[in-house]
Specification:
about 250 residues, alpha/beta, Rossmann fold, eight-stranded mixed beta sheet, two-stranded antiparallel ribbon, globular
C-alpha cells in the first residue's frame, strides 16, 4: 500500500527543482557596425571569431570593441596588439561618441604590444591566463594575429607550430573563462585558407568574417554559413563613423 507523505513529497519536489539546469542566454557583444551585427548576430562568448580581409574597418574594429564591451557589460577588455594598431586616442574618441566617460573606458582596457612572434607567443602561453584571472575581462582581442608569424627570420614550419599551439591556448582560455574572443587580420593579400598559416588559422576558429573593401562599399562574408552583406560607404570626404555603418 502506498502511503502519502505530503511534507516528504514537497521536500523531494523542491530538491528536484533545485537541480534543474537553467540555460543562460548567449552572452553577445555587438560590434556597432549594423551590417556586421545583422550578419554575425554579435560576437559570442565562448567562441573565437576571426575577422579577415582588406577593409580599413578591420583596423578600427578592436578599438570599437573595447568601447562596446564597456558600454554593454561595464567590463574590461584585454587587447593584445600584434601590429601596432591599438590607439588609446581612437578608443577615447569612440567613447565620447557613445557619451561615455573616456577615462572610465580607458581604465577598463588592458593593452599589451608584441613586437616579435616569440613575444606574442609568450604573452599567450605564459602571461595571458594570470592576467585574465586578475582582471576578469569579458572580451579578448588579438589584433593582427598572423602578422608576426610571417617573420622571415622564423622558419615556416616553426611559425606553423607556434601558431597552432597559440591558437589552441586561446581556444582553451576562451572556453574556460567564457570570453568573447576576436582575432583580426587586415592585409592587402588575404590569407589563403587552404594552406600554410591561413589554413591553421581558419581551421582553429569558430566563425570567420571576411571583409573586402571596394571604392564605394565593403562586402562582408560569413564564411562558415555562406552569408553575405554589404556596407555602403558615405560620400567622398565624409569622415564620420556613420559613413562606415557604425551605430553611434
Amino acid at each position: 500500500m502506498k502511503i502519502n507523505h505530503p511534507r516528504r513529497d514537497q521536500q523531494a519536489a523542491t530538491a528536484r527543482a533545485s537541480t534543474v539546469h537553467v540555460v543562460r542566454p548567449d552572452i553577445i557583444l555587438a560590434s556597432g557596425i549594423r551590417e556586421l551585427d545583422r550578419l554575425l548576430k554579435g560576437f559570442k562568448a565562448g567562441e573565437v571569431t576571426l575577422v579577415d580581409g582588406t577593409s580599413s574597418l578591420i583596423a578600427e574594429l578592436p578599438n570599437q570593441l573595447c568601447v562596446m564591451t564597456y558600454h554593454t557589460f561595464h567590463s574590461e577588455t584585454i587587447y593584445i596588439d600584434g601590429g601596432m594598431r591599438a590607439n588609446p586616442y581612437t578608443i577615447a574618441r569612440y567613447a565620447r561618441l557613445l557619451e561615455l566617460d573616456q577615462r572610465d573606458v580607458l581604465e577598463n582596457v588592458v593593452i599589451s604590444r608584441a613586437f616579435t612572434v616569440y613575444q606574442l607567443s609568450a604573452l599567450i602561453q605564459e602571461h595571458l591566463e594570470p592576467l585574465i584571472q586578475r582582471r576578469t575581462p569579458r572580451t579578448l582581442i588579438i589584433g593582427m594575429l598572423p602578422a608576426l608569424y610571417h617573420d622571415p627570420d622564423v622558419r615556416p614550419q616553426e611559425a606553423h607550430t607556434i601558431l597552432a599551439q597559440d591558437l589552441a591556448k586561446l581556444q582553451e582560455l576562451t572556453t574556460r573563462y567564457t570570453l568573447v574572443t576576436v582575432l583580426t587580420n587586415q592585409d592587402s593579400m588575404p590569407l589563403a585558407p587552404a594552406r600554410g598559416l591561413g589554413k591553421i588559422l581558419y581551421d582553429s576558429v569558430t566563425d570567420i568574417v571576411r571583409m573586402k573593401q571596394f571604392e564605394h562599399s565593403t562586402t562582408l562574408e560569413l564564411v562558415n554559413q555562406e552569408k553575405t552583406a554589404t556596407i555602403l560607404h558615405g560620400t567622398a570626404g565624409q569622415q564620420r563613423l556613420e559613413a562606415f555603418g557604425l551605430v553611434i
